[in-house]
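On clarity, I found the account of how folds are encoded harder to follow than it need be. Since the whole study asks how a given chain folds, the encoding of that fold should be made plain. The format is easy to grasp once an entry is in front of the reader. For illustration, here is how one protein appears when written out as sequence plus structure tokens.
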Amino acid sequence: MDVIDSKTEFSPTIASRGVTELLRLEEVTKTYLTDGQSVHALNRLSLTVRSGEFIALVGRSGCGKSTLLNLAGAMDFPTSGRVLLDGTVTSELDDMGLTRLRREKVGFIFQSFQLLNTLSVVENVELPLLLAGQADTRERAQRELELVELGELDARMPHQLSGGQMQRVAIARAMVHGPKLLLADEPTGNLDTTTGNVILELLRRIADEHKTAIIMATHSVESASFAEAVVEMRDGKIQEVIRS
């Protein structure tokens, strides 16, 4: 992997070469008040992500990885600076606009899977479509399960699955509405190495074949190697970007 300058690689001028810019963080600072002291979770951080790009965020706990994911998915907003998702400034949207943006543009994957134990596999995948009032929900959910190679397990309950299978169901659920951006917070943290690698290969295939941008936070250097760009963070800032 080659070490590059992050300002050069993630410059908005990339779009002029025919590459679609999906997400841009402009001089973003996120400040929290802790014990009467202001703490910068992110400190004037700038980053641009292109459609279909698979990026891994690495760094110690507290370096700002999860905060960056929350800002990217419009679950939180910067204290200063701007976040633009598909050309929209997230902090300028009202509640209805934010709900629509997250529902249509963003998918989330978590370390703990977060499947509903009272719903079957296919019902878990179908749920986001039902909440959005969309049609043909069962057919679309089934199709997404086929893509993660779990179509034959559609009627099972989450407790009947292995950890790797549960995470594949979670990925199917995150992808069922066709998001442009997929945010993954330690997606292999509860899995063994072999199973985790299957999940990482699946994420890489989603980025390549569906042109879905993926930002993954991870503590694992091995997991980060599956991404095409590794963003090393420290104290709320980007230290360097390493591209394969």
